[in-house]
């Protein structure tokens, strides 16, 4: 924004004007006669009052096809409109309808743009009473981060003359709206955007017309874009999958359950990504299992016990009979890195999977790949390089085209179609913008906010959505994995960052000169004394019955010592009372022969009670470890023999007992747990100081690797393991000067603030009507 705007925003004595631009969905239903003279539609007085010259609408007439029309002229009393786009004949009155997205312009004092402005020659009607009251926050009390909670507010217009009465019938849900701020005698280009959002309904009375608004985060509260299975066979699945969203896979994902498509091209086929090609086979990562038992990879034509990767369709093809439960470690879409950071995973979803604005096109198109051109309202926020879904309005799931925008100018959209469903020619399409454009993402040092967030924390994440997912929920899970937040800023740009302790220069000083009544210290969560971060998410947790015997089997027989059988006991060993006991006096062994799979990884676990001496565990020629203390023990090893002897050796001094000895595959534990956890970070001093109020926190994340989980775990401890305060600070200051996440200084004679304290802005409540801002501050 320019110098004039910067000066205005800091001058409380300035005269301000606000420009409001809204795009509601106009609906005019009435008994209308058609008149050839003047090409007019006639109706009762007041019918067309809320329309404007230039409105591009759709005229719906009984038994006739819808036609696009433009308002060319209208009566002052609203009794008629002249239209272009269709030739009208003299026809008696009938129930007709005019509908379509229109643009409306309002201001506080009245404003006219010049012929060289954008938009040019527009009158902003002086009807605004309160340009904006708005609240937004990323503070949820227990945990800070994830989405900035969708902000809400309202814009109020004067309706004393009844000119807004007709708006009550219009569509005011989910429509774009912009508020700009300027000063007296500002040129149009000097106005600065203070809010871009969407409408959320309206209220109307004989004095005011109020439009409820929310920020653009509200747009994210819907399913991510993913084609749906049509149930027609092949890679469209059977009837059992009809209308189910196809899976989305981002990065290296662990033990995902694939979607069974049945027999495709003669072999059983399972899909893990339905949105295009995936990364090719990686012998160091890809594993496909049936009930936990690995199958063998082949490049093509798999036989029984084998599999191959169809990278073009994001699918696994297996040979032989149908698997009972197929899971796999896979690598997702080629449009995202094989090892994406949280920032890159969010970027992929934000630019390729968000379902945004839609509009109707009446262009006639035939479904097919390649270039397609159609007419579309020129206010649609499309852009070259973005993506568009073109779906037949009457059957959107069965007949559609998807591709990248290669041209957009003067209401003409050109799309290079790369994916389709259905066949035929249609002349009524719903065109949906999919994904944010580069210009809709906030900038940061070194690039955009995704680049900045990646630089802060490049830790690798994994994302798997077997049947789609809500955009807000998925983005929350990714962001929370690294303590990040996201949302849309005032200018309507996607913004993201990571919660950090307050630091740097304050953008605003709040003190006794501008603090208002209502200043208070709020309840804040006690410090964290213990922190654990889960990683390596297992996308298909498997119970014992889900796994093959070879995976779930305990190779040790009678490991709970329920009877005095199986084991060979040396001198001093005895089995009774559900345990094996050893008496001191001589060195000896407790043994049994076991069966293992050579090359398989195993874990030996046992409970040891020791009074004296040492106990040593061996499997064949492998010595696993020696125990000289009571407790649970675990040893990981790789089998080198098929029928080794399990040996528990005691030295002459050992006295104690052994119970619950088991040898199971290493995978068994990973199959049965949703997450893995490193050793927790803890600070006993915090626990002793805060007692029961101290928080023992656990954060389950999408982080893939243990090292990244440990680093985030310690960062969370450093951030939340110290006392923090939350203040509500009403201030008499200029609205729209502070953003979520910025630092401000807070000084007051109470609450220990006499020396000032740097705080982080987590919430903002702004009212343009009385130049009042209430901030939620944390630090």
Write the layout of secondary structure elements.
Elements lengths: L2 H7 L6 E7 L2 E11 L4 E3 L13 E5 L6 E8 L5 E5 L6 E11 L2 E4 L3 E2 L10 E4 L1 E12 L4 E15 L14 E11 L8 E13 L3 E8 L32 E3 L1 E6 L1 E6 L2 E5 L15 E4 L2 E2 L1 E2 L8 E5 L4 E4 L7 E6 L10 H11 L2 E7 L3 E2 L3 E6 L11 E6 L7 E10 L2 E10 L3 E2 L2 E6 L8 E2 L2 E2 H8 L6 E3 L5 H10 L3 E5 L5 E5 L10 E2 L9 E3 L5 E7 L14 H4 L15 E2 L3 E4 L2 E4 L5 E6 L7 E12 L2 E5 L2 E6 L3 E8 L6 E6 L4 E11 H7 L8 E2 L1 H7 L4 E6 L5 H15 L5 E6 L11 E4 L10 E11 L4 E7 L1
Parallel strand pairs: 8-10, 12-37, 22-23, 39-55, 41-53
Antiparallel strand pairs: 1-8, 1-13, 2-3, 2-7, 3-6, 4-5, 4-7, 5-6, 9-10, 11-12, 11-56, 12-15, 13-14, 14-15, 16-36, 17-25, 18-19, 19-24, 20-21, 20-25, 23-24, 26-33, 27-32, 28-31, 29-30, 29-33, 30-31, 34-35, 37-38, 40-54, 41-52, 42-45, 43-44, 44-51, 45-50, 46-49, 46-51, 47-48, 47-50, 54-57, ...
Write structural notes for this entry.
The chain has eight helices and 57 strands. The strands form eleven sheets. The chain has a 17-stranded mixed beta sheet that branches. The model has no long low-confidence stretch (mean pLDDT 92). It is mainly β. The protein is flat, with a radius of gyration of 34 Å. Helix 2 (342-352) runs antiparallel to helix 3 and helix 2 (342-352) packs antiparallel against helix 4 (471-480). It folds into eight domains: 3-21 and 105-220, no CATH class; 25-101, Elongation Factor Tu (Ef-tu), domain 3; 234-339, no CATH class; 357-434, Beta Barrel (Elongation Factor Tu (Ef-tu), domain 3), CATH 2.40.30; 443-498, no CATH class; 509-524 and 724-778; 530-538 and 675-715, no CATH class; 544-671, Jelly Rolls. The longest helix has 15 residues, at 706-720.
């Amino acid at each position: 924004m320019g110098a004039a705007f910067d000066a205005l925003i800091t001058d409380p004595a300035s005269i301000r004007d606000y420009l409001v631009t809204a795009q509601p969905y106009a609906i005019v239903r009435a008994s209308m006669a058609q008149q050839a003279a003047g090409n007019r539609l006639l109706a009762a007085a007041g019918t067309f009052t809320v329309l404007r010259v230039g409105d591009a609408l759709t005229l719906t007439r009984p038994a006739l096809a819808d036609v696009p029309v433009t308002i060319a002229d209208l009566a002052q009393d609203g009794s008629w409109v002249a239209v272009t786009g269709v030739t009208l004949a003299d026809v008696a009155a009938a129930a007709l309808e005019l509908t379509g997205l229109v643009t409306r312009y309002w201001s506080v004092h009245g404003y006219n743009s010049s012929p060289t402005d954008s938009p040019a020659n527009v009158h902003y009607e002086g009807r605004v009473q309160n340009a904006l009251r708005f609240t937004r926050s990323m503070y949820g009390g227990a945990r800070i981060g994830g989405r900035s909670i969708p902000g809400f507010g309202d814009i109020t217009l004067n309706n004393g003359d009844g000119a807004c009465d007709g708006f009550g019938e219009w569509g005011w849900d989910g429509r774009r709206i912009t508020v700009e701020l300027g000063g007296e005698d500002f040129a149009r280009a000097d106005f600065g955007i203070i809010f871009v959002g969407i409408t959320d309904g309206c209220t109307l009375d004989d004095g005011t017309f109020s439009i409820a608004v929310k920020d653009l985060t509200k747009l994210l509260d819907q399913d991510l874009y993913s084609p749906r299975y049509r149930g027609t066979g092949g890679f469209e699945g059977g009837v059992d999958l009809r209308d189910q969203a196809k899976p989305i896979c981002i990065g290296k994902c662990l033990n995902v359950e694939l979607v069974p498509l049945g027999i495709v091209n003669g072999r059983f086929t399972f899909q893990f990504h339905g949105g295009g090609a995936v990364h090719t086979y990686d012998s160091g990562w890809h594993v496909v299992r049936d009930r936990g038992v690995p199958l063998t990879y082949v490049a093509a034509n798999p036989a029984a016990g084998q599999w191959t990767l169809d990278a073009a369709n994001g699918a696994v093809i297996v040979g032989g009979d149908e698997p009972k439960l197929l899971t796999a470690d896979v690598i997702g879409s080629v449009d995202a890195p094989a090892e994406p950071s949280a920032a890159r995973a969010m970027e992929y979803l934000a630019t390729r999977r968000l379902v945004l604005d839609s509009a109707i096109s009446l262009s006639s198109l035939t479904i097919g790949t390649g270039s397609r051109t159609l007419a579309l309202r020129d206010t649609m926020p499309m852009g070259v390089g973005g993506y568009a879904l073109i779906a037949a309005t009457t059957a959107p799931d069965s007949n559609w085209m998807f591709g990248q925008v290669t041209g957009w100018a003067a209401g003409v959209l050109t799309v290079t179609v790369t994916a389709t469903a259905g066949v035929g020619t249609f002349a009524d399409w719903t065109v949906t913008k999919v994904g944010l454009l580069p210009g809709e993402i906030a900038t940061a040092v070194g690039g955009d906010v995704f680049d900045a967030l990646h630089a802060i924390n490049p830790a690798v994440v994994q994302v798997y959505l077997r049947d789609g997912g809500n955009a807000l929920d998925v983005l929350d899970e990714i962001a929370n994995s690294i303590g990040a937040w996201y949302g849309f800023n005032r200018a309507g740009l996607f913004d993201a960052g990571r919660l950090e302790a307050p630091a740097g220069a304050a953008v605003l000083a709040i003190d006794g000169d501008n603090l208002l009544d209502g200043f208070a210290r709020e309840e804040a969560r006690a410090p964290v004394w213990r922190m654990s971060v889960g990683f390596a998410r297992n996308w298909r947790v498997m119970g014992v019955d889900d796994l093959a015997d070879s995976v779930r089997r305990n190779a040790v027989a009678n490991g709970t010592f329920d009877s005095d059988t199986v084991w060979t006991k040396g001198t001093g060993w005895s089995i009774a009372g559900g345990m094996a006991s050893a008496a001191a006096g001589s060195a000896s062994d407790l043994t049994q022969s076991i069966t293992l799979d050579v090359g398989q990884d195993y874990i030996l676990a046992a409970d040891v009670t020791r009074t004296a001496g040492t106990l040593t565990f061996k499997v064949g020629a492998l010595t696993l470890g020696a125990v000289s203390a009571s407790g649970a023990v675990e040893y990981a090893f790789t089998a080198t023999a098929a029928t080794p002897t399990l040996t528990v050796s005691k030295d002459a001094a050992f006295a104690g007992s052994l119970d619950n000895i088991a040898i199971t595959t290493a995978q068994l534990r990973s199959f049965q747990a949703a997450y893995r956890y490193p050793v927790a970070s803890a600070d006993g001093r915090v626990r002793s100081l805060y007692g029961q109020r101290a928080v023992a926190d656990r954060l389950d994340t999408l982080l893939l690797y243990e090292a990244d989980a440990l680093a985030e775990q310690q960062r969370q401890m450093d951030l939340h393991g110290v006392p923090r305060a939350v203040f509500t600070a009403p201030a008499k200051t200029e609205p729209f000067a502070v953003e979520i996440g910025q630092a401000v200084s807070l000084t007051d004679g109470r609450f220990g603030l006499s020396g000032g304290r740097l705080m982080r802005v987590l919430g903002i409540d702004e009212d343009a009507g009385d130049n009042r801002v209430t901030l939620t501050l944390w630090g």
